[in-house]
Amino acid sequence: MNLIIFLLIGALAGWLAGVVMKGRGFGVLVNIVVGVLGAFFGGWLLPKLGLSFGGDMGLFITAFIGAILLLAIIGLIKKA
Which candidate among 7, 21, 48, 78 keeps its CA 20 to 30 Å from the CA of 30? Predict the structure, then answer.
């Protein structure tokens, strides 16, 4: 059940990150995948920066930040 919640939160974060990063999104499905990957990325990166958020809302914030960072990195690589 926790995995399903994690995937749903990551999917929502990816979709929202795609909306926020207009012009850098890659469509709804890819943005959802980026959100799930962003949850992993954010969960790895943010504690290294001294940031941590608890609970489901914290997971959403972490996934959202991670998804935005991944979309920005992918956008930079895509331009090069």
Answer: 48
